[in-house]
Amino acid sequence: MSARPAYAPADNAALRYADFCDFRDMARGSAKLRDSILISRGLPPLGMPHINDNVKRVASNPRVSKHQCADCGGALNVRRNKTGRCIHCVRAFLHPNTKRCSVCQVGLDRKNASGLCAEHRIRLRETKLDNPTRALVKKVSQLMNISAEDVLSRSHETAAVEARCVVASVLRRRGQSLQKIGRRLGRDHSSIKHLIDNLPKYAARNPLVTETLEKLA
């Protein structure tokens, strides 16, 4: 009967290195496939720093610091990612439709991630009109030849803004707070404060504003 052959002890370090090599090759293959798909869609590749030529150019460029974005040159306040870009540039490349508002097609800043401009992103609050405010809005709209719906709407037209300013100024003179006026007109207190602060400008531009305030005083 032949003796059982002696087995050599397992080399755990060699096994770990072999597993690492397999994982590295798999990661490189996945990155190359992903970059090929991005390039076919007209997008810049992301890749990995040790296999992507697009990222190697950042390391070979002495003018680009490791704390700067490779595209915009802005400071990176977070840990540098594999692309060498800040999160805003990566988001702008991956989501090109966010460069314009999806409703009105107005140009957006590169830091905008919602795809909507400020006018469509910030919705008007629900108006809580009481009877005195409703009567005041109706009277101001009649004196300034504008509909009451335009005064309470999102409209940025000059006539609507001036009428809204008159209503806010009269309510403020009656002793109401900015927060309460904002609830009545469906806006926040900062918008009401801005309206009241611009009253002299509106009065100098349109004499009808001064006449309406004098009639309501």
From TrEMBL:
A GO MF term: ATP binding
Domain Chromosomal replication initiator DnaA C-terminal: 132-199
Family matches, as InterPro entries: DnaA_C, Trp_repressor/repl_initiator
Protein name from the UniProt record: Chromosomal replication initiator DnaA C-terminal domain-containing protein
Positions of transmembrane segments: none
Highest taxon of source: Bacteria
A single GO BP: regulation of DNA replication
